[in-house]
């Protein structure tokens, strides 16, 4: 993705994507640490991901509309 001629937004963008990528495993780790069965949590979390991705679409529309 080209973010423009100014290189300043690039590391912010990269960090934001890492936050998304590592947030899910962190949630998994929290659940397992709390004693939740990993297989059970993985099944529920996998089913929950369409909701999570829908949040991105919702935020996109709000950001564009202001």
Outline the structure in words.
With 66 residues, this protein is mainly alpha-helical. It has one domain (9-65). The protein is built from two helices and no strands. It has helices at residues 9-33, 38-65. The relative contact order is 0.07. The model has no long low-confidence stretch (mean pLDDT 90).
Structural features:
66 residues, mainly alpha
Mean pLDDT: 90
- Percent helix: over 70%
Number of strands: 0
* Derived structural class: mainly alpha
Over all CA atoms, what is the radius of gyration? 16 Å
The oligomerization state is: single chain
Distance from N terminus to C terminus (CA atoms, Å) equals 23 Å
Question: Would you identify the regions where 5 or more consecutive residues have pLDDT less than 50?
Answer: none
Number of helices: 2
Strand content: under 5%
Largest sheet: none
Number of domains: 1
């Amino acid at each position: 993705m080209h973010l423009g001629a100014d290189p300043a937004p690039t590391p912010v963008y990269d960090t934001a994507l890492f936050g998304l990528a590592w947030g899910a495993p962190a949630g998994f780790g929290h659940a397992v640490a709390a004693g939740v069965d990993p297989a059970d949590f993985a099944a529920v979390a996998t089913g929950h991901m369409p909701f999570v991705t829908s949040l991105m679409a919702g935020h996109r529309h709000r950001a564009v509309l202001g």
